[in-house]
Amino acid sequence: MSAAITSSRTNQGGFLFSPGIDLFFVINCCWPLILLVDRVGGVTTHQSLLFWQIYFVTAPHRWITLALVAVDHHKGHDRRRQFIAFGSAILIGCLCVKMGTGSLLCLGAIDYIWNAWHFASQHHGVFQIYQRRSQSSMGGAKTRFDKFVFRGFMLFVIARVAGWGWTAGPFEHWHWVASVDWLVLIIPVGLVIRQLVRYAHGSNANLASLTYLISVMSLFTALLLASHYENSQWVVQLALASAIFHSLEYMSIVTWSMSRSGATSQSAILSHLATVWVSFMAIFIIVIGLGNYLLSRGYFEFWVFINIIVAFWHYCFDGMIWKSRKPKSTSANAVAA
User: Fold this and answer.
1) pLDDT by residue (tens digit) across 322-334?
2) Neighbour tally for 7: CB within 10 Å
3) In whole angstroms, what is the distance from residue 54 CA to residue 240 CA?
4) Measured between alpha carbons, how far is 293 from 225 in angstroms, rounded to an integer?
5) Percent of the chain whose predicted confidence (pLDDT) is above 90
6) What is the DSSP letter of 264?
7) Distance between CA atoms of 119 and 4, rounded to whole angstroms?
8) Tally of CB atoms within 10 A around 303
9) Cys-Cys link to 208, which of 14, 36, 243, 307 (CB 3.0-4.6 A)?
10) pLDDT by residue (tens digit) across 1-58?
11) What is the pLDDT of residue 197?
């Protein structure tokens, strides 16, 4: 009975697990606390946070995609040939670029651009998951427009973080971009206000989608302001918080997707989270063990190259895994029946 009540309240608020778990792992409402610790702790604390972020959060969340493709046939939809084909193409392409240029600079640039799209797509996708748990839904045209605006704002911010429009840097002739920042800020403010109005009227908005939108838009607004004032320290610290946000969110969504048909009680949810994330840690142990071995042998560039390939596989496979399949037509269903 209590489990049913918990499930009902969770669904009513639109949360995937429970309000507490969602707020911490998916909505990441604690990102300002991470930023505060980073600011107060100084260089030593920042380096420690960076180490934990890279090896305990970012690396496992990328490598886990390979395991997800290998073992989760529901996500793979038996598209093994497609995964092998795209994976092989990425591997061959990376090898050709590396041998042709003799450095990782070109691959690093591709990684940043692809990662920017990956960030924007994932954040919008999670917001859409929360939105679809509302009682009503928007039309296709409005959804496409929201998708364009949401992702466009994030891509603009990520480009600004990279130095686009800064007075000094690789894009120093694009100074005029900084004057657009204040106009672009209308987007997150407008999205949040609209969501607040919808939630207040009980129309196509739930508490989970509202809190998620406020959290992610606040983070990217802070990144845009830090880039506007060209405060490199703030940009680096906010980028660290953003990376942790992104990775925790991804692993939580993977966990939710794998446990949608499971139990709904708080203890069962926490137990499942612990079980799945232990497997993530096992992958981490393998990854960091391999990394330490290669680094100890002086193969730093080779280790970076491997991680770039894994990152590209992660971006590619992630898009294939989570992309909704087109529903079968009514006639096709009738024939199948």
Assistant:
1) 764 444 433 334 3
2) 14
3) 9
4) 41
5) 46
6) -
7) 35
8) 16
9) 14
10) 444 444 444 456 889 988 999 999 999 999 999 999 998 988 888 888 887 777 667 7
11) 94
Q: Which two tokens stand for residue 337?
A: 């029946």
For residues 134-155, b (16+ Cβ closer than 10 Å) or e, as one string? beeeeeeeeeeebbeebbebbb
Q: Indicate the SS3 state at residue 260.
A: coil
Tell whether the torsion through CA atoms of 251, 246, 45 and 288 is positive or negative. Answer: positive
Residues 6+ apart with CB under 8 A from 53: 240, 243, 244, 247
The conformation of residue 326, written as its DSSP 8-state character, comes to: P
- Amino acid identity, residue 154? M
Residue-wise pLDDT for 254-313, tens only, equals 778 766 645 455 555 555 555 665 666 666 667 666 766 676 677 788 888 988 999 999
Tokens at residue 119, please?
Answer: 């960030």
Name the DSSP class of 14: T
User: What are the distances in angstroms from CA 192 to CA 150, 156, 165, 209, 215?
Assistant: 11, 18, 26, 10, 10
Q: Which amino acid is at 16?
A: L
Provide the sign of the torsion angle of the four alpha carbons 154, 158, 159, 165, taken in this order. positive
Q: Name the DSSP class of 1.
A: -
